[in-house]
Amino acid sequence: MATKIRLQRHGRKGYAFYSIVIADVRAPRDGKFTEKIGTYNPNTNPATVDLKFDRALYWVETGAQPTDTVRNILSREGVYLMKHLRTGVKKGAFDEAAAEAKFAAWKADKKKGLDALEAKKAADEKAAAAARLNAEKKANEEIAKKVAEKLAAEAAAKAEAEAQAAQADASAEAAAGESTETPAEA
Q1: How many domains does the chain contain in total?
Q2: What's the predicted TM-score (pTM) here?
Q3: Which residue spans within the chain are E strands per DSSP?
Q4: Are the CB atoms for 67 and 5 separated by under 8 Å?
Q5: pLDDT tens, 51-101?
């Protein structure tokens, strides 16, 4: 019986997530399977993989052929590295402890790289937020400047209108005063 490690689709239209299963080559994609060894959700950022590492390693070592996507998933999770290290132990290149140490070092290096990427992403988001804030402050300052100029122009126009009104009142009083004084002189 030819065995495959492949994805079995679940979810709704436009939002698929997958089970990683061991199935016969002849079985339909979403049909009968031998064993479920994990899940894969590509909708999250980064994609979420929940894998039974020991079972995946067992099936890879027994000759189950993964599909291209599953091969990439298993490789990222370190299944193929562990298979390679176990082959080295069987051939006598190094012992089991050295293999475990190499695998732990690889995991630590991978985690450090992922943490660095996450920190860089957070720093980029923070810088972008600061740039947006500065742009917004600049736009608000320009708007405040325009409003201040408009208020100053309105205040100047109002003061000018009041000055003209006061001047008109003064000239009217002067004209009224002259008209009342001229008949008194006569």
Answers
A1: 2
A2: 0.66
A3: 3-12, 15-24, 35-41, 48-51, 65-66
A4: yes
A5: 999 999 999 999 999 999 999 999 999 999 999 999 999 898 888 899 999
